Amino acid sequence: MSAGTESKTNREKFLEEMQKIAAEAAKKTPEELVFNYKGVLYPSSICSEETFQALQSLEAREDDLLAVTYPKSGTNWVTKVLHEMLILVHNREITVDHAMLEFGKPEKVKYLKGQPSPRLFSTHMYYDDVPKSYFEKKTKFLLILRNPKDTAVSYFHFSNSNPVLPSFSTWDEFFRAYMDGKVCYGSYFDHAVDWNKRIDDENIMAITFEEMKEDYLSQLKRISDFFGLSLTEEQLALIESKTTFKSMKEKSGDSHGKLGNVFFRKGEIGDWRNHFTEEQSKEVDAKFEECLAGTKLGQMLNYDKYCKF
Ligand code: PPS
Question: What angle in degrees, to the nearest 10, is found between the helix axes of 233-242 and 75-90?
Fold first, then answer.
């Protein structure tokens, strides 16, 4: 659900469409709000099995840019960063209409095929669902990770504020669904383990939400270098100022309409401490140990620093 700053008319049309979808979703039962594709739940108001299948025919271009995240890990933040970078490099507006690959109707693939380069996309998909040609062409992917505890808290609040997702009466109820992979896009851990299999691919660079929060300018430089954008220090500083949590939240009405405050909630590290019981925290620790501790992505998460009481 990424957004940018393309022409007002397009943005307004897009937000109106989103509002209609949200109003329709509000009438649905929790069961109707999701569908199961390959054993994973997805939000039925904004994506479909047909779109997943149609996407396979999307031909990758070497200069496409792709941001990959599990939900609530910084998708909108990084998409905005990449969008601003492209605008500076190309000195023109770049559309991020339909940037989220798997959202929308199957016909969108035809629209995407007609879009000029460079195309900027984001996705929460598992790598098997990303069009195969992206791996053949070695298109560059930026993978953004966030620690599993803050991701859960962000997802809990989002689920209860966004009508396209099933809501949860309590944090405990959400926590159980999150740990059992019964939320949209499935288990955080399955998703990270899945993408960890590609981590040595030369066209993939991983970055964490926490690194961005704590060392932002250096991370902006890494992103710019990875995509070969050669931005100057002044340009990076400009992007930094336009993409802080504060400035994105202030403009969220324009970029995300009525759901602005829902997308830009707190933008902090460590809010999990206000939600998790000790038992829940230990359960995530054990799951992390079992699935990710010994992996490259797991090490990047700096788990002890960000996830221990
Ligand atoms: S979504 O719905 O899956 O696309 O959500 P996503 O954009 O991936 O993640 C939303 C969380 O990212 C926070 N956010 C930011 N944090 C810091 N700086 C900036 N600029 C920023 N932009 C978005 C957003 O506030 C959500 O986290 P929480 O913890 O809920 O605040």
Answer: 140
124, 46 Cβ separation under 8 angstroms: no
Reported as half-sphere exposure (CB side, CA atoms, 13 A), residue 236 has a value of 16
Our count of domains for the chain comes to 1
302 within domain boundaries? no
In a domain, residue 106? The reply is: yes
Which residue range forms the structural domain that includes residue 228? Answer: 3-147+184-268
Name the closest-CA residue to atom 10, ligand 1.
Answer: 72
The pTM for the full model equals: 0.96
Give yes or no: 83 in active site: no
Ligand 1 proximity of 266 Cβ (cutoff 6 Å): yes
Q: Catalytic residue, from 83, 90, 98, 124: name it.
A: 124
Distance (angstroms) between ligand 1 centre and the Cα of 263 equals 6
206: number of Cβ within 10 Å: 20
Tokens of 34: 């999701």
Q: Residue 256 Cα, ligand 1 centroid: separation in angstroms?
A: 12
Q: Is the CB of 1 under 6 A from ligand 1?
A: yes
- pLDDT per residue, tens digit, the chain (309 aa), is 444 455 566 888 888 999 999 999 999 999 999 999 999 999 999 999 999 999 999 999 999 999 999 999 999 999 999 999 999 999 999 988 789 999 999 999 999 999 999 999 999 999 999 999 999 999 999 999 999 999 999 999 999 999 999 999 999 999 999 999 999 999 999 999 999 999 999 999 999 999 999 999 999 999 999 999 999 999 999 999 999 999 999 999 989 988 899 999 999 999 999 999 999 999 999 999 999 999 999 999 999 999 998
CATH of the domain at 99: 3.40.50.300
Q: Is residue 227 part of a domain?
A: yes
Quote the ligand 1 centre to 128 CA distance (angstroms). 25
| Residue 130, domain member (yes or no) | yes
- Rounded distance, CA 211 to CA 68, Å? 16
Q: How far is the CA of 125 from the centre of ligand 1 (A)?
A: 17
Q: Nearest C-alpha to atom 19 of ligand 1 is from which residue?
A: 245
Strand partners, 66: 121, 141
Ligand 1 site, residue 255, Cβ cutoff 6 A: no
